[in-house]
C-alpha cells in the first residue's frame, strides 16, 4: 500500500497524536521520581552498608532479641537479636547482584539466540525455538531449584541459574522484534552493499532492538528479586549466615504472631523495591512506544 | 527466448525464471523466462501491475532471492555463478533504491554513518577521501552536507530521505542503479525533485538505470526504453517514446488508456479488459493475455506468442499487434 | 434530484493534541457541495483533506477538538450538534464513506455476505433472509462475478480491487445521499483504479448521489470531478469547477502543482518544475499565508496577514493576496 509520507516531521498525520497529556505531569512524581528515589536508596544502602553507623549484620545481641524499632536498632531486631536494618542493607547486596547480573545473562544470551533464530531459517531456527519453547514450558521455579540443587546453593549459582532461566523470554522478544526489521529496506540496502550477516545483525538490526530489550530487562530485575527471595525462602538460595531478604522472611516465619516485624519489614522492603522497578519500567516503556510510533 | 546481449550492455538478463514453492507441491512461476538488456547510460523502465513479476525480477537481479534459471550478466559476467567473495566484489557496481524512503535509512544511525557504511563494508574507507566522497554525493543529490551529516533520518522529509538513499547508492560509484518505485510514496510536489535528481545523474554520471514503476507518466519522464510485463512475461519492449505513443500490444494500449491524465478535456474512455486476471498458476496454453484481450482470436488460445521483433528496436509478444492501420 | 446545496461547511477548524503541541489540522474551512455533483478535494500530506472528510462523519480521535462555532450542515442539519445515536443513524445510511485500504473496512473473520447484510439489517431493519438476498444483488451491482459464491467467501480470498468493490457495495447498500471516498484507489493497480472510478461514476449517476472524492492525484480529479477544492496546510485555498482549476488556476500553489507533475505528452527527460521546500505542519497560531515561504510571488503582506477567501464573478474561490491573472 502506498501512503503518502512527505510532510517533513515525525508527526505527519493526526494518527501521531495521543490522548491529552495534561494528567501526566502530576502523576509523574508518584510514577517516576519516588520509585527512582527508593531504588537509589536501596543501591546506596547496599554499597555503603559496611560504612553505615549500624551494628554488623550477624552480631547477635541477646539482650535485644525480638525488639521493635528503637534508637539502638532503627528497624528492630530479629529472633536472634540481629539488627534488621543492617541485615536489610547487606541483604540488598544479594538482591541487587542477582537482579543486575541475572537479567544481563538473559539479555546477552537471549538477544543472541533470538537474533539467530530470526535471521537464519532451517535447522538452526528450529533447534533454538525448540529449546526455548521447552524451557518456557518448564515451571521456572522447579527449574531453578533443580539447577541450584545440582550446582550447590550460593550467590553465584543462584545468579547463573536465574540468568539461564530468563534466556528464553529474552530470546522470544528479541526474535519478535528482529523479524520485522529483517525485511526493512535499510537491511536490504546493507545486503546489496555487500554487508556480512554479522554486520547486519550487529550494526543494523540490534541497535533498533536495544530499547525494547532494556525495557524488558528492567521488568526482569524485579522478577529476579522475587525469584531469589523465593529460593532463599525455600532454603536453596544464598546460604546463611549471609543475609538475604528472602532468607530473612523465612527466618521470621516461625514467630509471625509474636514478632511480625521480623518477616514483614523485609517483605515490605522487597515489595517496595519490586514495585519501584516495575513503575520505572512502565515509564520507559511508555516513552519508548511514543517515540516508536512516530517512526513507523 | 534468447536476447542478443551485446557485450557493451551494462546489464543483461537472459531467460530468468523465478519460482516459489507453494503448499501441496505446486509451484508459482512469478517470472517465466524474461530477457532484457540495459545499455550503458540508458534507463529501462519495467512496468506492470501487481502480480506481473517485476518485484521478483528485482530481487533476483540484486541477488537478494534465489531463482531457478537464467543468467544475470553485469558487464558480461554472470553474477549468479560467482562465489560469495567474488559477488561481494561485484556488488559496488550495481546498487539499489527502494520505495519507502523512511524505511530505507536506519533510524538509529546518523547520515554520516549511513553513507560511510558501504565504504567500510567494502574496505574502501579512508578518513580523508571518504569524507570528501560523502560530501560530493550529497551535493549531487541536492542535499546540503553541512546540515545533514550529523542528523538522524527522522529529522528529514520523505523526499530528502529518498535523495539521501540515492546518495548512499552512489557512494560506491555503481554502473547500474536499480530503482524500485522510488517516487510512488512521495507527495506530488516532491516527486519532481527526485525525478529531476535521477535525470541529472543519468546525464552527469552516465548511470544506467532499471526503473520499476506503475506510473506511465513517470516512465515518460525518466526512461529511454520500456518493458511492459504481464503475468511473468514481457509483452512489449522498445523505445519508451515510441511505445507510449504507439503501443503495439493490446495490454499496453489498455494500460495507457487507464492512466488518469491531468487535463479535464481528455476523456476517460478507455480500452477495458474483459474477465478476470487468471491465476498465475493456471495460465494454460496460448497467450496468457487472451482471457482479457479485446482482440483475442482463435490462434491466441492455442499458441503462445514469443517476443517478435516489429520494427526498429521494438518487440511485441502478440500474434496480432496493434499497428498503425488497425 | 434538483440542485441545491447538500453540504455546507462553515468555519471548520480542527486541532489535534499531540506531544509536540496543538496541531492545527484544519483552519476555518468554508465549503459548499451541490447536490448530485462530484467534488474532488485535492492536497498533499498535511493538507487536512482526510481530516475534513472524517470530521463530516465525526470520526475523529479523542485528541481532536473542533472549534466551537464550526458547523457542518447536511441538508440543513448541523452534524456537529447531533448526539451520538443521531450521528450513528446518519453514518452508513445517509452519508457513507469508502477508505483507502479496504482491509480496514472489512472484518477478516466474517464472510462478505454477512458483513453486507449487517448494514442492511441495522439500518433498514431487513430480515436476515431478505438482507442476504439484497447483499448478493449489491455484489452484482458493483460488478462482482458469481456474487452468490463470493458472498460466502472471506475478504482474504478476494483481490484488492474486488475488496474495494465490496466496500463500495457496503457503502451504497442503504442508498446514501452523500458518498465520501478517501483515496479509494491509491492502493490499486491503474487498470483496476480506472474500473473502480468508472463504477463510482456509474453508481453516482444511477442513484443521484453526491460524491466527495479525496485524492492527491490531479489526473483523477480532472477526469472525474465537477468541482475541485485545493487544500494546503489545513486551509482551503482554491475552489472552482474542474476546467477552471486547470485552465485558469488563481493560486500560485495550484499552478505550481500543475506544472510539477510529469505528463504523458512531455518530451522524455524533461526537467520538471519543482516547488522549493515542503508543505508545513502547523503547530501554534500563525498569521499570513502558509504557502508564502515557498511562493515566488510572496511579499511582506503575504507573511503578515492571512489572505481571506475571495471570489471572482464565476464563483472561483481563492485565498491569495496576489492571485494569478486570467491568462
Biggest sheet of chain A, in brief?
A: none
Element-level helix/strand string of chain A: HHHHHHHHH
Number of helices of chain A: 9
Largest sheet of chain B, if any? 8 strands, mixed
Instruction: State the name of the first-level CATH class of one domain in chain B.
Output: Alpha Beta
Unreliable segments of 5+ consecutive residues of chain B: 1-5
Radius of gyration of chain A, whole Å: 23 Å
Oligomer: heterotrimer
Query: What name does CATH use for the topology of one domain in chain B?
Result: Rossmann fold
Give a written overview of the molecule.
- The complex is a heterotrimer of chains A (296), B (326) and C (327).
- By secondary structure, chain A is mainly alpha-helical.
- In chain A, 71% of the residues lie in helices and 0% in strands.
- The longest helix of chain A is centred in the C-terminal third of the chain and has 38 residues, at 197-234.
- Chain B is an alpha/beta fold and 326 residues long.
- Chain B is built from 11 helices and 12 strands.
- Chain B has helices at residues 54-61, 84-90, 111-121, 127-140, 145-148, 158-170, 188-205, 216-222, 240-245, 250-258, 298-302; strands spanning 9-21, 27-39, 43-47, 69-74, 77-78, 94-97, 176-180, 208-213, 225-230, 233-239, 308-309, 314-316.
- Chain B is globular.
- Residues 1-5 of chain B have low confidence and may be disordered.
- In chain C, β10 (227-232) and β11 (235-241) form a beta hairpin.
- The radius of gyration of chain C is 21 Å and the shape is globular.
- In chain C, the strands form 2 sheets. An 8-stranded mixed sheet of chain C has the order 7-8-9-3-10-11-13-12, sandwiched between helices.
- Chain C is of the alpha/beta class and 327 residues long.
- Chain C folds into 2 domains: 1-84 and 179-189 and 201-265 and 277-285, Rossmann fold (3-Layer(aba) Sandwich), CATH 3.40.50; 95-175, no CATH class.
- Classes of the chains: A mainly alpha (296), B alpha/beta (326), C alpha/beta (327).
- Chains in contact: A-B, A-C, B-C.
- Chains B and C meet through α7, α8, α9 and α10 of B and α8, α9, α10 and α11 of C.
